[in-house]
Write a structure and sequence with these properties.
There is one protein chain. The protein is of the alpha+beta class and 460 residues long. It folds into 2 domains: 242 residues, Zn peptidases (Aminopeptidase, 3-Layer(aba) Sandwich), CATH 3.40.630.10; 199 residues, Alpha-Beta Plaits (2-Layer Sandwich). It has 11 helices and 24 strands. Strands 8, 10, 12, 14, 15, 17, 18, 19, 20 and 21 form a 10-stranded mixed sheet that branches. A 6-stranded mixed sheet has the order 1-2-6-3-7-22. A 4-stranded antiparallel sheet has the order 4-5-24-23. A hairpin with a 5-residue loop joins strand 1 and strand 2. Helix 1 packs across helix 3 and helix 5 crosses helix 7.
Length: 460
């Protein structure tokens, strides 16, 4: 096992690299290339191309993304600080922030592979950016730099899974200008905490409670008459785990408190961790369009909507990821994931009609393509046989209910043989994210072994 993997990973963890702010990680990767005499080019949106010519007849492309989802419960300064990581047994973890193993460990593995010399094919590397948001890096990568026709992405989350297809995704902004009116009544502040949150694709079938939907349910049940402010969730691709709302109600504090205590969370896997605080406040202004906000969000579909009949795998889902009232405007960040374009369009139309009904603007920010499954794949077959040879266990050919850059990449490289692997990353996009050290070691050796066999044209 090449120990450089963890050296590089820890260096990467020290670099601020929130999605859309990849300048510093791009400089780090360029510096690595210079120090190791590796060809490189910095592209649009701080993408990085690397090439190491090992004087072989075969070339393979390795891919990862340099950005991360930045989540914290205490307004952590992600612009100027690295991740406060620590090691707990077999896991890298972070102190109250997301870890960024998605996809920092992918980059670290690739850098360590580039230091290997024995029996390696020629290696081309594409490091993309803004994968967690706009995917502008993959969309604007200079594909003319790449000569390989086989690609392994290191952007998965589970060891022994070979991701061979992925869903598409629509990112949507729903908004409305709001007006305030004077208020002389006492109000309330409700804060919700303790829910698991997680990735709005990978974790959507795990029946985790959405803090936004929960708070709207509470407001309905306590007869909320007016909203003062809302700040719930982080972004459209994260299941919200906490948030705050200030509101008016005709009921007293004890009545509201009892109503919240009796909210049925037994259907959710993370209901036992639910915590809340409710207190009385004084506020001078309230939002006139409060009922429209509550009714819209209450009626919007959220979570797993439809499954494949044959295996129960998610086919269609949505996530209300963020609601914020700021600068006299309510903004809702929403996403739809689907492996069926017609079903995606049907849900988009449904949400669009709801927005019209309650006077909200509807805007599609980004549409990310599918990564279609191929029945025949040489690199997938080689990865399967290599893992079996090394560890005596079978891999799983997996569909992924998350949007992946593989869809964009495969649309830009004709006849590309492509799939994704990774070590075990748990609870990514949340403060509970953690990376398995032992799994990372196994995946590194798996990738290295596969590359050698690929170079030698050996199937097992």
């Amino acid at each position: 096992m090449n120990k450089d993997v963890f050296k590089y990973f820890e260096e990467i963890l020290k670099i601020p690299r929130e999605s859309g702010k990849e300048e510093k990680i791009a400089k780090y990767l360029a510096s690595f290339a210079k120090q190791n005499d590796i060809e490189y080019k910095i592209g649009k949106y701080n993408t990085i191309f690397l090439r190491k010519d090992n004087n072989q007849g075969k070339t393979i492309i390795l891919q990862a993304h340099s950005d991360m989802v930045c989540v914290s419960n205490d307004n952590y300064d992600f612009d100027n600080k690295g991740i406060p990581y620590y090691i707990d047994g077999d896991y890298y973890k972070s102190k109250n922030t997301s870890l960024g193993a998605d996809d920092g460990i992918g980059i670290a593995i690739i850098l360590a592979i580039l230091k290997e010399n024995e029996n390696m094919p020629n290696i081309e590397v594409m490091i993309t950016t803004q994968e967690e948001t706009t995917m502008l890096g993959a969309n604007n990568f200079d594909y003319s730099l790449l000569t390989g026709k086989t690609l392994i992405s290191l952007d998965g989350i589970k060891e022994a899974d070979i991701e061979a297809s992925s869903t598409g995704m629509c990112s949507i902004t729903i908004s409305k200008k709001v007006e305030f009116k004077e208020n002389n009544e006492n109000g309330y502040k409700l804060s919700v905490k303790g829910l698991m949150g997680g990735h709005s694709g990978d974790d959507i079938s795990k029946n985790r409670c959405n803090a936004i939907k929960l708070i709207m349910k509470i407001l309905k049940e306590i007869d909320c008459s007016e909203i003062i402010s809302i700040d719930i969730g982080k972004r459209d691709n994260v299941i919200p785990s906490e948030g705050e709302v200030r509101f008016l109600s005709k009921h007293n504090l004890n009545y509201i408190d009892n109503k919240i205590k009796n909210i049925d969370l037994s259907l959710y896997n993370d209901g036992t961790n639910f915590r809340y605080d409710i207190e009385q406040i004084k506020e001078n202004k309230v939002i006139m369009e409060s009922k429209d906000i509550i009714n819209l969000i209450h009626q919007m579909k959220d979570g797993l909507i439809e499954k494949y009949e044959e295996d129960g795998f998610p086919l269609l889902s949505s996530n209300i990821g963020k609601v914020l009232i700021e600068n006299n405007e309510v903004v809702i960040k929403y996403s739809i994931r689907s492996s069926d374009k017609l079903k995606e369009r049907s849900l988009l139309d449904e949400v669009y009609k709801l927005c019209n009904k309650y006077g909200f603007e509807f805007k599609i920010d980004a549409e990310k393509p599918f990564f279609p499954f191929k029945k025949s794949s040489n690199i997938r077959r080689l990865l399967e046989s290599s893992y079996k040879k090394l560890y005596g266990k079978n891999t799983i050919i997996k569909k992924v209910h998350a949007c992946m850059e593989c869809g964009i990449i495969s649309n830009n490289i004709k006849d590309l043989d492509i799939c994704t692997i990774a070590p075990d990353i748990e609870n990514c996009h949340s403060i509970n994210e953690q990376l398995s050290i032992s799994s990372t070691k196994r995946v590194y050796e798996w990738l290295k072994y596969t590359l050698v066999k690929y170079n030698q044209n050996i199937d097992n």
